[in-house]
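In the previous chapter we treated chains in isolation. Here, by contrast, the input contains two separate entities that must be folded as one system, with a combined length of 593 residues.
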Amino acid sequence: MNNQELLELKKTACKVRIQTIEGVFNAKSGHPGGSLSAADIMTYLYFKEMKVDPENPKDPNRDRFVLSKGHCAPALYGALAIKGYFSTEEIKSLRHIGAMLQGHPDMKNTPGIDMSSGSLGQGISAACGMALAAKYDGSDYRVYAMLGDGECEEGQVWEAAMFASHYKLDNLCAIVDFNGLQIDGHVNEVAGLEPLDKKFEGFGFEVIKIDGNNFEEIEAAFEKAKTVKGKPTVIIASTVKGKGVSYMENQVGWHGKAPNADEYKIAIDELNAQLKALEA
Amino acid sequence: MAETKKIATRESFGLALCELAKDHPEIVVLDADLAAATKTEIFKKAYPERFFDCGIAESNMIGIAAGLATCGKVPFAASFAMFATGRAYEQVRNSVGYPHLNVKIAGSHAGISVGEDGATHQCCEDLALMRTIPGMVVLNPADHYEMTAAVKAAYEYNGPVYIRLGRLAIESFNDPDNYQFEIGKAITLKEGNDVTVIATGLVVNESLKAVKELEAQGINARLINMHTIKPIDKDIIIKAAQETGRIITVEEHSIIGGLGEAVAAVTSEYCPVPVNRIGIEDVYGHSGPAVGLLEEFGLDANGIKKKIETILK
């Protein structure tokens, strides 16, 4: 990607983060930490990587994205709204009674959502089913599934991993948003996740490790994934939980909590300043 | 009329799938290392490229089915009822039920008629679990012809369906020339006004034998085959309650959460009459030959007849 593209992606990611904060603040609940850590990768997927068309969200040949860590829906909603699937106004009613945007992704009512998700461990299985369908049909669309690092403690993730490798689903690219924190603390203090790369290698995956908040590395990883044949790929993306909002960064307490009015103002001011700097 | 050859509904299911698949390339079949037992192996032999073994990983299998369904496939995912609905309950609820995906789940070896494998594999809770899921259709066919028709109806219905399959080879009692199946429309097998017996699945034929014997003793029982547990046929239940004043349900399933409670929910709301539930009474099964277990638990014709007599005393 050239410098202009890189700059545009950075600006879009900043806007996705602003929408994330708007959504969670107006909902008075939700999950800002993991949404902010994943915002760069989601931005890259929707604005560079995936063949998708907001005018035709059900196109059978589109690439698919499954947010297996469904609680990070605020960032996904931000990306979808900015992409044009629905108005950013919808984000202000996130989690409200009667709202389109549910606490976790709902494929039935939200354009652009390819799979309902949120119960951890389940999205990756559905993504495997989609990738299998593409193989069965001889279609060339790709399937992307984003997992949380803590989510990899779910046994179903490894059932799905075995399946993906057994059926040689090289059209499947999993991404682990490795921000290192889960509700009860650091992932390695809670349940001993590491070595995650060796685990995925053992399950037959091509493993790519990157800084998940760096667009050049994100691009290189997704480009490499497309060249892998005969096996699925996982991108283990080291990220900063709460990325972009100073007081949320690397703080486990911001996993599932909304900012109050003062905190909201600080977050929006910081993100707007970052956006302004990029636009300068 | 009904033939005498015995066939298990799991085998009827496998045969019906094969027949349906001829004209519907979007049908694919998933199993979790039990193809020989659930009889999806019949399909696997005929359409190997449309059969996907998921290994012993039922939770993942349900998710695979959900993903396939989002891409226009019509997956039939089979395992033992215990694992398809018990182990994978939450996957069925959240990955299939909530998005109302077009996935058909087949639970084989349901009830105590699993036999020798014993309590761990004798699922007497599947109907209860599946009927709690919003939008889920729950079918429990009673013989070969009903299963054949039910598989077709499940395919034609756009949304999630659970179909209960049995291991034990049983007689067919429906008349293949005149049999008609409609989801949610129960079938009156025998008219009568003294009491109504509502049965489902394997024990329908046993109940039929029981009510015929009771007739000889002057008890004129109506018999209804409730092949669809959800959506339940309210009209036929209300009519039976009004006309016969008492209902006895018979199921090879826990009396908690199954047919009996589904029927009692309708009567208590629309036409309160006594409802007695014959089934597995809040206990686990155990090992033994299927026929012997059905006798022990009072779910053969003789046992059903005796329980009805006791209830009516």
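The radius of gyration of chain B is 18 Å. Chain B is about 40% helix and 20% strand. Compare these points with the single-chain example from earlier in the chapter.
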